[in-house]
Amino acid sequence: MKQLVVFDLDGTLAPSKSPIDAEMAALLGQLLCVTKVAVISGGDWPQFQAQVLAGLAASGLANLSLLPTCGAKFYAYRSGWELLYSEDLTPAQKAKITGALDQALTSLGFAPAKTWGETIEDRGAQITMSALGQKAPLAEKTAWDPGFAKRKKMQVLLTELIPEFSVRLGGTTSIDVTRPGIDKAYGIGKLHQELGVEISDMLFIGDALFPGGNDYPAHEAGVTCIDVRDPEDTKVVIRTLVSVSGQP
Length: 248
Fold this sequence. Notes:
- Helix content is 35%, strand content 20%.
- With 248 residues, it is an alpha/beta fold.
- A hairpin with a 4-residue loop joins strand 6 and strand 7 (127-130).
């Protein structure tokens, strides 16, 4: 049993931008009773509140660490939720990233005919493009780029347009852009620093562990990783972890 279990959020703990279901909340509650748990995602703090915290019981939160925007922010539970750091982008950097994302989407012919809400979101420490918009129906998002082919082409172009930034793929339609070195490997390092847990004592669980995926930096950091297809896979992993812990 590892001292710290780290999860991706969208596609791992819950469908894209959806709350964890009651079964996942119960399983995470059981896991929090036997080990430390962290969640690292491209989403910002409000998404963590809506997707994770709204469904969790209050007990066990001292064992939970939350790292929004791919590790560019870190929240720890003490007397309440406390922001430990935030690696925010400057206004000029945000403008350059936004322009590059717009250019990549249109020049490659991937701009959709219909969108639902804003397609580019300023998350402070990260700019995220959701190609169909922030409020797109899950079925539409799932069908747009199921094999990541479109976003991999965009990623190649973006690394030419904005080589000074880190470009990662995540979720179902999203691309996350941060300062260089600010990714889930950075978040893993911060977990080691803040919690005193060695990398060898961590386990990472995610659905984008392929090269270029926004979970892949966790693998590069040397963490033992488990690749899952969806939240149902993740539930199987959590049940197994709780079982081997010896707790009822």
